[in-house]
């Protein structure tokens, strides 16, 4: 199934941009974070597929993979 051009891009006559946020854990799972890493790997692969699919419509898809940040998430997961 091919994703269609976004309504805003069509209505505004502009190219579109999509930003997805994954994680560096998409590349390497670590103990106690298997589900999180798998979910972020999905986001990364989805972004790659959408990028290829939508580029012909002028829509750019970028997936951001930030590293660790001090949010307390890691401590809460332990």
What do these coordinates show?
The chain is 41% helix and 13% strand. The chain has 78 residues and is α+β, with helices and mostly antiparallel strands. The chain has a domain at 14-67. α2 links the parallel β1 (17-21) and β2.
Largest sheet: 2 strands, parallel
Poorly predicted spans: none
- The run of helices and strands is HEHEH
**SS element count, helices:** 3
Computed over alpha carbons, the radius of gyration is: 16 Å
Based on Cα principal axes, name the global outline. Answer: elongated
Structural class: alpha+beta
Share of β-strand residues:
5-15%
Look at the structure and give the mean pLDDT.
Answer: 83
The residue fraction in helices comes out at 40-55%
End-to-end span in angstroms? 39 Å
Number of separate strands: 2
Side by side, the strands of the main sheet go 1-2
Summarize the SSE layout with pairings.
Elements: H1 7-12, E1 17-21, H2 34-54, E2 60-64, H3 73-77
Parallel strand pairs: 1-2
Give descriptors for this structure.
3 helices, 2 strands, single chain, alpha+beta, 78 residues
Provide a short characterization of the protein structure.
The chain has 3 helices and 2 strands, in the order αβαβα.
